[in-house]
Specification:
This protein is mostly helical and about 90 residues long. The chain has one domain. Helix content is about 20%, strand content about 5%. A two-stranded antiparallel ribbon has the order 1-2. Helix 1 runs antiparallel to helix 2.
């Protein structure tokens, strides 16, 4: 674990992998919990969220973004023009 953040980098990456290719049940099994994957969202601090883009990378063109201001992986409100380290570009 990473101290008071409550979620490790490995867990963040596991959640990201689960959200990208597994069912909610499968993702829950991968992270070792019986609760839905949504309940295991990472904190904004843990994924280094910022409310500004990183070049062309921004939340509104990420596969995890849920309009108007949510994310499948990151807890809390996210800006469409934000960015974090679990960014994954939407397929063309």
């Amino acid at each position: 674990m990473t101290g008071s953040q409550g979620i490790s980098r490995r867990q963040v990456l596991t959640i990201a992998a689960g959200a990208a290719g597994a069912s909610v049940t499968g993702a829950a099994a991968v992270i070792g919990t019986s609760t839905p994957a949504q309940a295991a969202k990472a904190s904004q601090q843990a994924v280094k969220y910022q409310d500004t883009p990183k070049g062309e990378q921004r939340c509104d063109n990420c596969v995890h973004f849920e309009a108007p201001s949510a994310c499948k992986i990151v807890d809390g409100t996210v800006a469409a023009q934000g960015w974090c380290m679990v960014y994954a570009k939407k397929p063309a």
